[in-house]
Design a protein that fits this description.
The chain has six helices and four strands; from the N terminus they run ααβαβαβααβ. The protein is mainly α and 128 residues long. Strand 2, helix 4 and strand 3 form a beta-alpha-beta unit. 25% of the residues are buried.
Length: 128
Amino acid sequence: MTKDINKIKKLVYDTVFATDAQTKDSNILNIRKLAAEHGLYLASIQGLYEAAGKGKYSGKTVPAINIRGLTFQVARAAYQAAIKDKVGALIFEIARSEIGYTSQRPSEYTACVLAAAITEGFSGPVFM
């Protein structure tokens, strides 16, 4: 797994610091492929909200995490805590207003969150 983690860390680094769009896009695609191989998939939280509205999901909260910097590292910490405490669902989000001043496009942000999930051994839905 260490080899995989080092490969993922390099992909994240090369994605975040790429100076050309083609390299960035290629790395993002590679991270998304690796995520799928590790049982990760992007999902909507809508079904959970609908269940909560019908009283079928009560007494629980779903944390929504906005990461404005060091996305990969902060997401890793969030996944570590979620796994340790058996958190059922968590949402990673970036507001439209944050995209500009953080220099994180949604595709890059998503790739960093997926890469973090891989390194921490998370599998299942990733809510963005």
